[in-house]
Write a structure and sequence with these properties.
By secondary structure, the chain is α/β, with parallel strands linked by helices. The chain folds into 2 domains: about 80 residues, no CATH class; about 270 residues, 3-Layer(aba) Sandwich (Rossmann fold), CATH 3.40.50.300. It contains 7 helices and 16 strands. The N terminus and C terminus are likely disordered. The structure holds guanosine-5'-triphosphate and magnesium ion (MG). Magnesium ion binds next to helix 2.
Length: about 375
């Protein structure tokens, strides 16, 4: 079945009379980039971009070569998607109170968070890693919005042929416009891409705090330790204390093997350093129509649960460490349910950062003279 589509990436399009989302994903045929096209809870179609991006970068030509029912697994059984398949489970697979007081308690808990005094670290450093377009910058914007009290978009977000974020940013979050800085930073990175973008060789420098704020990434070249601003002997306060992988629920099923391998390679490096990892599953509003209507049913959604299980299997991460979120993308006003999911995830990251501090080996706090920095894998940590 072939048909041509013209539509904005990562948004709804019309095809074969059905509505769905497009997400760029993998490149099986050289310069062609395949897309997944997914109807809410129903059809799944695969196609290739047949044209180039138009001048305004907003539209892609897409030739769909197949459309088929999207397999859905409910309670461990594979079932064809159909209107008869219950989208919501009778019993939620995670519990959550969606009340105003839950939101307020989370805001308070996160606002009051500070790393243990003994660490001499003023702010936990959380590194956001993930494929291009997964929602890393949007997650920072979401958290920033919550504490600003209105929707903001400090970090640039959007869809582009390659990662839109091209600078390393250690974002601080303030409580209110003139309030003090909170006890964490969200470190935003360039997206992971097949054959380019952030790579496994870059990760030791990012984890080790060697890379300065606003470092300009080069998608074709690994981080260069010979740049003048490269921090040879960063303090513990600047190293990474928790890593968050950000994965787009819409396209995770069709992530290329190259990207999955890259993520696994990064995880190995991160685990070797005992740094805890969390996975954010973004865009859950785009994989389940019930969730799109009301985010508070996210933990009852069979589709979201299936995505969580699938991701767990694909990346080898435990289900409990995969946290569904919906970032602010088009909203003008804050939404309590968006805040609760985003803050629950952040609280988990901060708890994990605390675990890292608890486990931090005193031996690693020894001074290094910094003269022995090697191209990869050497991270110098001191407490100054
Ligand atoms: N519906 C929906 N859209 C989202 C969500 N998160 C992000 N988006 C949209 O997805 C697109 C990409 O988001 P970004 O935050 O720029 O993604 P990124 O991971 O920073 O991408 P790069 O910087 O290019 O690597 C933007 O158009 C966002 O508005 C979400 O949870 N739901
Ligand atoms: Mg970004």
């Amino acid at each position: 079945m072939k048909s041509s589509l013209l539509g904005p990436p990562h948004s709804r399009v019309e095809a074969q009379g059905a509505r769905g989302n497009i997400g760029n994903s993998y490149s099986p045929h050289g310069t062609d980039r395949a897309v997944s096209y997914e109807e809410f809870g129903g059809l799944e179609a695969y196609g290739y971009l047949t044209g180039t991006f138009c001048a305004d970068l907003d539209y892609k030509d897409i030739e769909v070569y197949t459309i088929r029912d999207k397999p859905v697994v409910i309670s461990g059984k594979r079932a064809d998607a159909s209107p008869n398949v219950p989208r919501l489970k009778e019993t939620a697979w995670r519990t959550m109170e969606w009340t105003v007081s839950t939101r307020d308690d989370l805001v308070r808990e996160v606002s009051e968070y500070r790393p243990l005094d003994s660490t001499k670290v003023p702010q936990a450093q959380i590194l956001l890693l993930g494929p291009a377009g997964a929602g890393k910058s949007s997650y920072f914007n979401t958290i920033n919005s919550i504490f600003r009290g209105h929707v903001t978009s400090q970090a640039v977000t959007g869809i582009a042929p390659h990662s839109l974020t091209n600078k390393f940013r250690r974002y601080e979050v303030r409580s209110g416009r003139d309030g003090g800085a909170l006890g964490f930073r969200l470190c935003d990175t360039m997206g992971l891409e097949d054959g380019q973008g952030l790579g496994v060789a870059d990760i030791p420098y990012l984890l080790g705090g060697n890379v300065p704020d606003r470092y300009q990434f080069n998608p074709a070249v690994s981080i260069d330790p010979s740049i003048p601003e490269f921090k040879v002997k960063p303090p513990l306060a600047e190293t990474i204390h928790c890593v968050t992988f950000v994965i787009d629920a819409c396209v995770m099923s069709v992530l290329s093997q190259g990207i999955v391998d890259k993520i696994k390679g990064l995880r190995t490096k991160i685990n070797e350093r005992g740094i805890p990892t969390v996975v954010l599953l973004t865009k859950v509003d785009e994989v389940c129509p019930e969730v799109a209507k009301d985010l508070s049913v996210v933990y009852s959604s069979a589709f979201v649960q299936e995505k969580v299980k699938e991701l767990s299997g694909r990346l080898g991460v435990s289900v409990s460490n995969i946290l569904p979120v919906k970032n602010y993308a088009t909203e003008m006003e804050l939404d309590r349910r968006v805040d609760i999911l985003a803050l629950t995830a952040l609280r988990q990251m901060l708890r994990f950062a605390d675990n890292y501090f608890d486990d931090f080996d005193e031996d690693q706090e020894e001074e290094h003279d910094g003269s022995d920095v090697e191209p990869v894998d050497i991270i110098h940590v001191s407490t100054n």
